[in-house]
Amino acid sequence: MVKICCIGAGYVGGPTMAVIALKCPSVEVAVVDISKSRIAAWNSDQLPIYEPGLDDVVKQCRGKNLFFSTDVEKHVYEADIVFVSVNTPTKTRGLGAGKAADLTYWESAARMIADVSKSDKIVVEKSTVPVKTAEAIEKILTHNAKGIQFQILSNPEFLAEGTAIQDLFNPDRVLIGGRETPEGQKAIQKLKDVYAQWVPGERILTTNLWSAELSKLAANAFLAQRISSVNAMSALCEATGANVKQVSFAVGTDTRIGPKFLNASVGFGGSCFQKDILNLVYICECNGLPEVAEYWKQVIKINDYQKSRFVNRVVSSMFNTVANKKIAILGFAFKKDTGDTRETPAIDVCKGLLGDKARLSIYDPQVTEDQIQRDLWMNKFDWDHPIHLQPTSPTTEKKVSVVWDAYEATKDADGVCILTEWDEFKSLDYQRMYDNMRKPAFVFDGRNVVDDDKLREIGFIVYSIGKPLDPWLKDMPAVA
Ligand code: NAI
After folding, report:
1. Predicted confidence band at 392 (pLDDT cuts at 50, 70, 90)?
2. Long-range contacts made by residues 289-294, C-beta under 8 angstroms, separation at least 24?
3. Percent of residues, the chain, with pLDDT higher than 70
4. To test the ligand 1 pocket, which listed residue (5, 12, 390) has its Cβ within 8 A of the most ligand atoms?
5. Bigger pLDDT: 398 or 426?
6. Hey, is 276 helix, strand or coil?
7. Cα 421 to Cα 334: distance, rounded to the nearest angstrom
8. Where are the alpha helices (DSSP H) in 170-206?
9. Is 273 annotated as belonging to a binding site?
10. Is there a contact between 411 and 436 (Cβ–Cβ < 8 Å)?
11. Is the distance from the beta carbon of residue 13 to the nearest atom of ligand 1 less than 6 Å?
């Protein structure tokens, strides 16, 4: 029986390993983590992450061929294949601060693998890492090998949160990079055999190590670039009276461009896009390619511009001040169908409004109060560390309340900001909301989910990203 161990029981390690266990009953999978609370949650009925379909998969395999444990060393020792899916935060200090990846967790995982191994192993990079990380890891492993053979593979993960299980069941592609030596090719084949149990052969791509590592960074940069492109257009649409939905539909029907990832919004978030682009920028700079670095940096700059443009629009519409006004925030997760708040645009929007002294009442169907308070007081990049190493939030903050109902959030509010595209926000009783708000009542739709005409009929002043502006908003221009 092939034994797999995955170090890191997070958004990637948990779902990917659960699906491998489900699809490969003859493989034994152990997911290990240094966070006791995370492992306890994986072993309970309340999994540590919300992902549609995940509960079902875990329930089917847990205790049979899927195990969650804090006994990292035992499971690494027993494994034939070790996946490493630990945090790769952006460095906050020293060389490359603010851009380069901090490989502390990766390096400590690699050293531990070298220490406890007594048999040959395949070590698989599942985390997104800078190009040539595998080479560094290989050096750590081989210098500490004691005669054991390690083969390094890069197998970056392309799942999207919110649709992770579907993506894993039916991936566009699985990418495996390895050394171009006979041993490297043998290792690739062994991992290929695992995926081939449910992924069609033509969708399993094999490359050299560096191509696999770079492909992951490139794919995220391309995806984020599409969002920044349409968001840049949304600003121009507002200035000219064009409608970004119509423009993006017209653009996306070109088969060379395609319709996906062309929704204008308050900005992209999630743990990967910004981090991976910063990483790419750093690699370009280190390789003497400042023009290429600048090109990709612009994707992040437009994303930041979009968030501050949104805040400015809110403040300027409400007579240039939101001091002591109650603003309801609907949605805090970085996208629908996940409870993940890492780099969510809601953080910057809320911080911007708090900076202007607003009072916030926040509702998200999947994010806890503790998480929201923590996110609003955490420093940039602090979130990407194991949970027990993150700073805790101050006990309470009067300016921010978190409630469990959209109507409670909007009661007596002056304005509503929709920051996540949760389906339930489309079918709220906006008349009821309007009746309980202060007038004039505003809706700022950062995800273009509401029927703006209907809301205007009710009496709201509506701002929808990239759509023709209400006369009210035209009279109060917001400059970012
Ligand atoms: P995460 O923060 O949810 O999980 C990482 C886990 O690793 C944490 O639970 C932490 O306690 C654990 N850990 C850290 N050091 C450890 C060690 N030495 N031994 C044992 N456990 C350790 O992160 P997530 O989202 O799962 O991401 C992991 C990697 O995958 C990152 O490199 C990320 O960029 C990449 N990725 C993330 C995607 C996503 O959608 N979240 C998609 C594709 C890749």
Report:
1. low
2. none
3. 97
4. 12
5. 426
6. helix
7. 9
8. 182-195
9. yes
10. yes
11. yes
Of all protein residues, the one whose alpha carbon is nearest to atom 20 of ligand 1 is: 33
Both tokens of 179, joined, read 């050394």
Of 201, 196, 187, 192, nearest in space to 134 by CA? 187
Structure tokens at 460: 């709201």
Q: Does residue 217 surpass a pLDDT of 90?
A: yes
pLDDT grade, residue 109 (50/70/90)?
Answer: very high
Continuous H helices in 287-439: 290-317, 345-355, 369-377, 406-410, 430-435
Helix (H) or strand (E) holding 462: strand 461-464
State which of 6, 38, 85 you would mutate to test the pocket of ligand 1, scoring each by most atoms of that ligand within 8 A of its C-beta: 85
Contact of 366 with 341, CB cutoff 8 Å: no
Distance from residue 446's CA to the centre of ligand 1 (Å): 29
3-class SS at 155? Answer: coil
The answer to whether 72 and 35 are in contact (CB under 8 A) is no
Tell me if 9 CB under 6 Å of ligand 1: yes
Question: CB-based burial of residue 242 (10 Å sphere; 0-12 exposed, 13-18 middle, 19+ buried)?
Answer: middle
The reported pTM is: 0.93
Q: Which residues are catalytic?
A: 272
d(CA 272, CA 88) in angstroms, rounded, equals 10
Pair of tokens at residue 449: 């989910």
The whole-angstrom distance between residue 260's C-alpha and the CA centroid of its chain comes to 17
52 in a known ligand binding site: no
Residue 35 bridge partners (DSSP): none
**Residue 152 C-beta-side C-alpha neighbours within 13 Å:** 22
For the sheet containing 27-32, what is the strand order?
A: 66-69, 27-32, 2-7, 81-84, 121-125, 150-154, 174-178, 204-208
What mean pLDDT do residues 364-381 have?
Answer: 90
Q: Give pLDDT, residue 230.
A: 98
Instruction: Tell whether residue 179 is among the known ligand binding residues.
Output: no
What pLDDT is attached to residue 391? 64
Beta bridge partners, 122, equal 81, 151
